[in-house]
């Protein structure tokens, strides 16, 4: 299922991971693990935030995906099923 991951990292903790050089490695490993359709990085709600769209094949993947953000960046993590335009059209067509 196409899934949007939003990880808002704690500012103090992410400052430390940038200073010690572990932030780029963590991001590279997450991107390699998830093979995302898209990955964006921005500031949201006052903190560094990753927005990653990827295919989650099973809910059992959640710990492996989320724990890294929790442990290494003290992040607030959200996972949301999302649709692209083709998915939306297919879903709307099924209504009629």
Total number of helices: 4
Question: Strand-and-helix sequence, N→C?
Answer: EHHEEHEH
Any idea what the radius of gyration is?
A: 15 Å
Query: Would you report the number of β strands?
Result: 4
What would you call the shape? elongated
> Which regions have little confidence, pLDDT < 50, spanning 5+ residues?
none
Lateral strand order in the biggest sheet:
2-3-1-4
Estimated structural class: alpha+beta
Helical fraction? 40-55%
Biggest pleated sheet: 4 strands, antiparallel
- N/C terminus separation: 23 Å
Q: What share of residues are in beta strands?
A: 25-35%
Instruction: Write down the overall mean pLDDT.
Output: 96
Short synopsis of the structure:
This protein has 96 residues and is α+β, with helices and mostly antiparallel strands. The chain has helices at residues 11-19, 22-34, 62-73, 85-93, and strands spanning 2-8, 38-44, 47-55, 76-81. The longest helix has 13 residues, at 22-34.
Could you walk me through the main structural features you see in this protein, from its secondary elements to its overall organization?
By secondary structure, the protein is α+β, with helices and mostly antiparallel strands. It contains 4 helices and 4 strands; from the N terminus they run E-H-H-E-E-H-E-H. A 4-stranded antiparallel sheet has the order 2-3-1-4, covered by helices on one side. Strand 2 and strand 3 form a beta hairpin. Helix 2 runs antiparallel to helix 3. The longest helix has 13 residues, at 22-34. It is elongated. The model has no long low-confidence stretch (mean pLDDT 96).
